[in-house]
UniProtKB/TrEMBL annotation:
Belongs to the phosphohexose mutase family. Its EC number is 5.4.2.-. CDD domains: PGM2. This is Phospho-sugar mutase. Residues 48-185, 219-309, 321-442 form the Alpha-D-phosphohexomutase alpha/beta/alpha domain. It comes from Pseudofulvibacter geojedonensis. The keyword Plastid does not apply. Keywords: Isomerase, Magnesium, Metal-binding, Phosphoprotein. It comes from the Bacteria. PROSITE patterns: PGM_PMM. The keyword Lipid biosynthesis does not apply.
Length: 574
């Protein structure tokens, strides 16, 4: 006889009432009869908003992405919008990516908003996430939704919420919205659409977005015709915008990986559609070898992250990490502002607490500010909103995201792709390369090396394991890491920092989050945090050394690699 916990049984019984359609009820009955473990995974909790919105596996249940969980979120969001704007005609814009069921789920969301007498602008087909962020402001909407699970595996989907400024929701709004959602019963969801309030949008917004990308991401390049580019959309949405953006900016020598150009939520040619992972760009690298490309660029399914590969001093194509790309892009942007005579000491760049400390070095060098926030671009968008008198130049985070200016308020692989090509083309015209520009920065500011260890822990037991690991690191911090004394500990959950040498403690100004960061005497930095959108615990390591001459880079880089390996071994994270 199959045993099912009473609380799981109570939750499933709710979903076996007439509120839920016959197909949903049938699937639940099948799980009860044949797969109680999957039943428990599907109902043991409610999906919650994380650093990048709400993501989960598609299926039936409260812990899954489906018509009812998204319907409940949307109904709660509609209620919240009306509470906040009782006398206003409200409007929202909805986009979706290439994932399986994204178009269907987007229509469900549109139906619920329209049933609540809220005007809906719905993209006719899949579109990049940064275009959704742009469209919120362009259409003067109160809210935006994009259906995406970014680079997660094919069985996932998700739901990101954007506010009127084009940025994702942040405290206290996110908590208030969640509370409103939790007050809703599934019987409260209005699924019957008012089709008169749903307007289909496409080319007009595309043109406005692409033109804005070209305006913000292109400068006075002279070698655009000569730059040899390989681009892959990894079966995602960027195929709808990036080729046209590059074309309008004047790039003619663009080779598209055709096998990956067709949007496909099953991502048939890659194990994971994540440009952070080298194997995702294997086909692009082969094409680069064939056509002797200068630069390779690949984007994730919703086109907010990009991976870049360039030629090193041995003429080998090498994949840069997100920190390296961010440093080159940020320095280039600041330099362009300086050339244009518009750089002032009130301008700022943005980064995150787990990204490279080299961003602060750049800010110090140019005499501007580097604002640092929690993981996720919603915090950079909040910086722009909170400091309207300070101009935002650009910024990014280690996870292959970058934002150029403030016309989009989320990481934007479309404009960042163009910017990367601008850097490469200008470097080529000066007998340099993108790679060489990076090494020049290491020579000038110090050679930084970052590495991410990401441990996947799935399901209920995985969540408990991650929780216990964070408790152990928090309650029993190491006195030394790789034989270097830990001198500073930042605990963002308690909101405190402690100088361990002088036994001094102070409050952190950044909002609380489950993140720990250790700083050692030799300048190393190690951060650990559970992912907000995936069943993972992540460890971010940063080490540094001086680079006296570019020709010494391989030697210094190898020494830093060894140092990172020693830190990983010491902390037993592999």
């Amino acid at each position: 006889m199959i045993y099912i916990e009473p609380e799981i049984l109570d939750a499933t019984n709710t979903w076996l009432t007439p509120t839920f359609d016959e197909d949903t009820q049938h699937q639940i009955k099948e799980l009860i009869a044949n797969n109680p473990d999957e039943l428990k995974e599907s109902f043991y909790k409610n999906l919650a908003f994380g650093t990048g919105g709400m993501r989960g596996i598609m299926g039936v249940g409260t812990n899954r992405i489906n018509k009812y969980t998204l319907g409940k979120n949307t109904q709660g969001l509609a209620n919240y919008l009306k509470q906040q704007n009782p006398h206003k005609d409200l409007s929202v814009v909805i986009a979706y990516d290439c994932r399986n069921n994204s178009n269907t789920l987007a229509k469900v969301v549109a139906n619920v908003f329209s049933a609540n007498n809220i005007k809906v602008y719905l993209f006719s087909e899949l579109r990049p996430t940064p275009e959704l962020s742009f469209a919120v402001k362009h259409l003067d909407c109160d809210c935006g939704i994009v259906l995406t699970a970014s680079h997660n595996p094919p069985e996932y989907n998700g739901y990101k919420v954007y506010w009127a400024d084009g940025g994702q929701i942040v405290p206290p709004q996110d908590t208030e919205i969640i509370e409103t959602i939790n007050d809703i019963d599934y019987t409260d969801i209005k699924f019957d659409a008012n089709e008169d309030l749903i307007e289909i949008i496409d080319q007009d917004i595309d043109n406005a977005f692409i033109n804005a990308s070209v305006k913000n991401g292109s400068f006075q390049g002279t070698e655009r015709d000569n730059l040899n580019i390989v681009f892959t959309s990894l079966h995602g949405t960027s195929i709808t915008t990036i080729p046209e953006t590059l074309k309008r900016a004047g790039y003619k020598n663009v080779h598209i990986v055709e096998e990956q150009a067709e949007p496909d939520g099953n991502f048939p040619t890659v194990k994971s559609p994540n440009p952070e992972e080298p194997e995702a760009l294997e086909m692009a690298m082969k094409l680069a070898h064939k056509v002797n490309a200068d630069i390779v660029i690949g984007t994730d399914p919703d086109s907010d992250r990009l991976g870049i590969a360039v030629r090193n001093h041995k003429n080998e194509m090498v994949l840069l990490n997100g920190n390296q790309t961010m440093i080159v892009m940020t320095d280039f942007l600041i330099g362009q502002w300086l050339k244009q005579g518009k750089l002032s000491d009130t301008d700022f760049i943005g980064s995150t607490i787990v990204s490279t400390p080299m961003m602060q070095e750049l800010a110090n060098y140019y005499g501007i500010e580097c604002k640092v926030g929690l993981t996720g671009f919603k915090w950079i968008a909040k910086m722009i909103k909170d400091f309207p008198k300070q101009a935002f130049i650009g910024g990014g985070e280690e996870s292959f995201g970058f934002m150029v200016g403030d016309f989009v308020r989320d990481k934007d692989a479309v404009t960042a792709t163009l910017l990367a090509c601008e850097i490469a083309s200008q470097a080529k015209s000066n007998n340099s390369t993108f790679y060489n520009e990076l090494l020049k920065l290491y020579e000038k500011h110090g050679c930084y090396k970052e590495h991410l260890v990401s441990l996947t822990k799935k399901g209920i037991s995985g969540a408990e394991e991650i929780k216990q690991m964070m408790i152990d690191f928090r309650n029993n911090p190491p006195a030394t890491i790789n034989n270097s004394k830990v001198v500073l500990l930042e605990d963002y959950q308690s909101g405190t920092a402690k100088d361990l040498l002088n036994d001094k403690e102070w409050k952190l100004e950044i909002p609380k989050s489950n993140v720990l960061i250790y700083y050692t005497e030799d300048g190393s930095k190690i951060a650990c945090r559970p992912s907000g959108t995936e069943p993972k615990i992540k460890f971010y390591m940063s080490v540094k050394d001086t680079l006296d001459d570019i020709t010494d880079f391989e030697k210094v880089n190898s020494e830093l690699d060894n140092k990172i390996a020693e830190i990983s071994n010491d902390l037993k994270i592999h």
